[in-house]
Amino acid sequence: MTTTTASVRRTGSRAGWRGFRRLLTTEFLVWFRDFAAPFFGVVFPTLILLGVGFLIPGMREPILDAPPDSVWYGITPIATYVPTILAMAVGTASLTVMPVTLATYREKGVLRRMSTTPMRPQGIVAAHLVINAITTLIGVGLALLVAALAFGVPAPQQLGVVGLGFLLGMAVMLALGMLVAAVAPRASAANGISMSIYFPMLLLAGVWTPGPVMPDLLQQIGQFSPLGAAAQALSIGWFESGFPLLQLVVMAVWTTVLLPLAIRLFRWT
Amino acid sequence: MTEPVVEVSHLRKTYGDKVAVDDVSFAVSPGEIFGILGPNGAGKTTAVETLAGMRRADGGTTHVLGHDTQKHPTAVRDVLGVQLQEATLHDKITVGEAIRLFAGFYPAPADPDELLALLDLTDHADKQFRNLSGGQKQRLSIALALVGNPQVAILDELTTGLDPQARRNTWDLIDRVRDTGVTILLVTHFMDEAERLCDRLVVIDGGRIVAEGTPRGLIDGLEGDRTVVLRFADEVVGAAREVLDRLAATHPDVARVEEMDGVPGESAVTGTPRVLFAVVPALAEADLVPDDVRTVTRTLEDVFLAVTGRTYAEQDEEPALATEGDRS
């Protein structure tokens, strides 16, 4: 160990991120040991997709009672469910996994412990944003693979719109998850808050009434909610020809409101 | 006189109208083990956490290696190791992972394997945090405070919850760490720990410094009473008591004689520092030979009693003020 001198190396602005790569890999590894977290984030959307597709009668029969010039004509109901599943995948990791993880860290003093080291506690938040973004991508990839193989779901009409909707959806849900993580003092509180947001969000995203069968009122409300807007933008990009400007703007606005709020309110202790 | 490594002056910290730390000043020299001793809730933790830049002071200044930790708390992170009282790690991180993770944060870290060996953790490197014993967790916590090769380490209540053997092992460890040149700020509510480890210390009570010095100096500086305890065989205990009582009534150096609680045949004779000189000739003259003689060793507890007027009751509840949250 060093002998005592009165001089201290000046810490540069990058010093706060020294060791971030190891932090990220260690957090990933440790997080992976909590089997429930990766399982839920990655597999849950696909399980729902499979369950709905195989257990609900008629989900795999093409829609023939729509007008022949409608975009829905000839498409299977399970295909119309795919955008909802993607929105769900985006919401699940962000809302059910991340806030609880970070609130647990706060409760146990992990964040506080981190704050005494040169690593900023922000590093741990950043690590979990990355981890959950990756989990979401894997979960979505798995769901899409299953959708294509098991249900023959067609490729999106407008790939760019789907991509944009997905990215904005991920941004807004991670921001929302961070806000919950920012203010929940304990893991139990984080779980309670998350769940009371998660289920209404799923409703608005069309988990029970996907795409064309969603009641008008629900759709009107849904388009202004983060996850509802994501599901609608994905659905429009996937099956229709229009541009979901309103939904994309809604997600962007929510993100620009929620993210600074989360950063501002974030408590380390 | 060397430049102090840690300098706290007129530090004040309040929570609402509760004053947690009140006008606390001290300076720590390079290579010292400096103690902050006091009962639970005295404001020790608040003081060092403010010093470490984790809490904002309401008054006064705090410097570590010349850096103002109130204005630039991040400036000392590379060279200040902190072991917190109530911080834990993720349940499923292993000892080896934790130490490597923390090593990665520092510009010139210690060798994780050497540190694990120093703290007797090598055999537990693959154990997950949740499976560690209290002593192992505590040693890991110390290791994490030292992994950055700090010049100064703050160790807060490092032996709380340890069994006597583990405590002694930890004390030996602190000695070894000091030998490597690290300046240590030791926060403790254990009198014996402070007496055993600290070169110098301050005693804090109710947020204020009530005594300051070396453990020996503080004890030697105590005014007044000394006590000699004598034990006599049953057949002479009556005669001896008579001699001692007469001594207490007549001799200027002897104040009183008391029966020791629950120990038949034992008398405690209290008086000035010269009380022993008065007792021995009187007993010799009467040819009363005690079976056992001992002087009561004075400790920091007596210092605490002398400066606060209260006995140092060990409370085991958590410090009330130290656990209050603080935005940082």
Description:
The complex is a heterodimer of chains A (269) and B (328). The model of chain A is unreliable at 1-13 (pLDDT under 50). Chain A is elongated and about 65 Å long. Helix content of chain A is 70%, strand content 0%. Chain A contains 10 helices and no strands. Chain A has one domain (18-265). Chain B has helices at residues 44-51, 95-103, 112-118, 134-146, 164-179, 191-197, 215-220, 234-250, 275-286, 300-308, and strands at 6-15, 18-28, 33-37, 59-64, 67-68, 80-83, 152-156, 183-188, 200-205, 208-213, 226-231, 254-259, 266-271, 292-295. Chain B is built from 10 helices and 14 strands. Chain B is of the alpha/beta class. In chain B, strands 6-7-8-3-9-10 form a 6-stranded mixed beta sheet, sandwiched between helices. A 4-stranded antiparallel beta sheet of chain B has the order 2-1-4-5, covered by helices on one side. Chain B has a 4-stranded antiparallel beta sheet with strand order 12-13-11-14. Among the domains of chain B are: 6-79 and 151-220, P-loop containing nucleotide triphosphate hydrolases (Rossmann fold, 3-Layer(aba) Sandwich); 226-297, 2-Layer Sandwich (Alpha-Beta Plaits), CATH 3.30.70.980. The two termini of chain B are 35 Å apart. The A-B interface holds A 1-11, 15-16, 18-19, 21-23, 26, 29-30, 33-34, 105, 108-110, 112-113, 115-119, 267-269 and B 3, 5, 30-31, 52, 54, 65-67, 74-80, 82, 84, 86-90, 92-93, 97, 100-108, 110, 144, 146, 148-151, 177, 180-183, 325-328.
